[in-house]
UniProtKB/TrEMBL annotation:
This is N-acetyltransferase. The keyword Metal-binding does not apply. It comes from Nocardioides zhouii. Residues 10-172 form the N-acetyltransferase domain. InterPro entries: Acyl_CoA_acyltransferase, GNAT_dom, N-acetyltransferase. Keywords: Transferase. PANTHER family: GNAT FAMILY, PUTATIVE (AFU_ORTHOLOGUE AFUA_3G00765)-RELATED-RELATED, N-ACETYLTRANSFERASE DOMAIN-CONTAINING PROTEIN. It comes from the Bacteria. GO terms for molecular function: acyltransferase activity, transferring groups other than amino-acyl groups. The keyword Plastid does not apply. It holds the Pfam family Acetyltransf_3.
Amino acid sequence: MSDWRHLRTGRLWLDEPVQDDLEDLHRIHADPDSWAHFPQGRHLDLARTQRTLDASEVEWTHGLGYWSVRDSTNGPVIGMAGCAVVADRPWGNLYYRFDPAARGRGYASEVAEAAVEAAHVVAPDRPVMAYLLEINVASRRTAEKAGLTLVWRGPDAGNEDPDAVRLVYLDREPDAAIRAAVDEHFTPRPAV
């Protein structure tokens, strides 16, 4: 497959986000329950969700990005998920965020598995990464079901919760260059 902008899984319709998805994506990203483990990530205004949608358009120019997720062709967007392969990162970023009403059905795992498979085709030399908070057990399970394993654990730089712990999962054992990039990206910097 050369165009991953539209993919069908067993139960889901995965499509490159379009402007018509903005209201549904904002509803999901603005919902406090969607950000229970990281409240500062919540989208407080439509402009922030628009920036996410605009960034998605750029990500897709590299062959893969985050999809708008529907459980039928005509249904509302119930999530945003996928794997973004961006030029300035040596890994593909696995992401999944769903409407709280759609959780508990295995949708995140279904999309995550499809996204990892797509990333292996689009950028086979690039590892797939999921980074998440240790307290988010459901997200950890999703990453693990998608075949990722824990490779880094440490304080979550910039998190308003000083006790927050960040976990980094990869789909393969990191080589020295990837390990150095992970350390550089996720290790908190001392205040200057």
